[in-house]
Design goal:
Length: 259
């Protein structure tokens, strides 16, 4: 009995030591955020009292989503990617470590020969695997379904990147400059599409959707999937659409027409 008790005490000490190391790493990750840049209250889905949306504008009655019509999305159009890059302050210069919050993927059907240009970003899954595997809670989901990363407690373990079937997250390898005030980023942390959450909370469209309507062919519809009267809900009811990797039963918030 004494040996078993000693073994349990040793195991408890190891667990406690591991937790201390994890918290220490989280503190270091917080320190690498650019000077003067900090996350703001809209990141979290609940306030200190646990009331959903009190600080954020997030409401459990809503679920924000996208519908992308691939028949309208031209391979030559890069408006959504550029708008995302400009608004969020990331740049892709062709290096393997460059971020890709949104990317154009060319897909084709070998039987029919038809091809489509498909914008792919974080799918904001209802059952998000990135949230499930995160050891610190840095990956989280707001009450309105938007999936985000809290850079203050992200330790850069990249478990979420491995768990994401859409390759929708990037790791910040280098020091950052000229950051955008609405999109705080930090070396040593993971990042991805936020659906331009400051714009959403202000009643605006995500930057990609606005750019597609202005410069592209209007291939994107953004709105509340829970509202049957919203433009996106009406469009989904009128014509068939699919979710990427629907077989995984993650219920993505991004739908595609024409695939």
């Amino acid at each position: 009995m004494s040996e078993r008790r000693d073994g349990n005490l040793q195991q408890a000490r190891e667990v406690d030591h591991g937790r201390r190391r994890l918290l220490g790493a989280a503190a270091v990750a917080t320190m690498v955020l650019a000077p003067g840049v900090s996350l703001v209250a809209y990141a979290r889905a609940e306030d200190e009292a646990g009331t959903a949306g009190a600080k954020t504008g997030a409401s459990a009655g809503k679920r924000w989503g996208l519908l992308i019509d691939t028949a309208k999305c031209k391979p030559s159009c890069n408006a959504c990617v550029k708008a995302c890059s400009d608004y969020n302050g990331w740049k892709n210069e062709g290096r393997p470590t460059d971020p890709q919050w949104i990317r154009k993927v060319e897909v084709s059907d070998p039987r029919s020969g038809l091809s489509h240009s498909v914008p792919v970003m974080c799918q904001h899954c209802a059952d998000a695997p990135c949230v499930e595997v995160c050891p610190t809670g840095a990956s989280f989901q707001r009450a309105d379904g938007i999936v985000l990363v809290d850079r203050h407690i992200c330790i850069g373990c990249r478990y979420c990147m491995m768990a994401c079937p859409y390759k929708a997250r990037s790791f910040v390898h280098e020091n950052l400059t000229d950051q955008q005030p609405d999109a705080p980023r930090g070396k040593g942390t993971v990042e991805g599409c936020t659906l331009c959450v400051p714009r959403v909370d202000a009643g605006q469209q995500p930057a990609c959707v606005e750019a597609c309507a202005r410069e592209g062919a209007g291939a994107m519809i953004f709105g509340d999937l829970n509202d049957p009267a919203s433009a996106i809900s009406r469009a989904l009811a009128a014509y068939p659409s699919v979710q990427l990797r629907a077989d995984l039963a993650l219920d993505p918030g991004v739908h595609y027409r024409g695939l």
